[in-house]
């Protein structure tokens, strides 16, 4: 049996680091930084980490809202969505994640597109 994406990414500790880097990149990304200007960074990093851990086959830690509910009314554009994907890719690369795993994570994130853009 092959290892889950969660395991191949390095488990909770590694995914927590990747998630924190994603949020940090979002905060510095001029395309989307304004979306996070009033965020509690600590809480945001925790939520992103729990979502990422759960979504990759790790322990079911995420207790937040579904993606459509979280993004409803935010009027997120396709350009902003791609900026988020770019930040995720940058964080994965920064943390030495392999090409296959990078592609799998981006596929998962992209699959949520219709629940995030212009909902």
TrEMBL record:
Pfam families: Bac_globin (PF01152). GO terms for molecular function: heme binding; metal ion binding; oxygen binding. The keyword Transport applies. Its cofactor is heme. One of its GO terms (biological process) is oxygen transport. Heme binds at residue 71. The keyword Metal-binding applies. This is Group 1 truncated hemoglobin. It comes from the Bacteria. Keywords: Heme, Iron, Metal-binding, Transport.
């Amino acid at each position: 049996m092959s290892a889950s994406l969660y395991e191949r990414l390095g488990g909770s500790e590694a995914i927590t680091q990747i998630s924190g880097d994603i949020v940090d990149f979002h905060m510095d990304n001029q395309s989307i930084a304004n979306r996070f200007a009033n965020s509690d960074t600590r809480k945001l990093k925790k939520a992103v980490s729990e979502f990422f851990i759960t979504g990759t086959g790790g322990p079911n830690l995420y207790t937040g809202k579904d993606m459509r509910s979280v993004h409803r009314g935010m009027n997120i554009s396709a350009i902003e969505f791609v900026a988020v994907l770019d930040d995720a890719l940058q964080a994965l690369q920064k943390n030495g994640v392999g090409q296959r795993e990078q592609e799998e994570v981006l596929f998962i994130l992209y699959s949520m597109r219709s629940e995030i853009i212009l909902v």
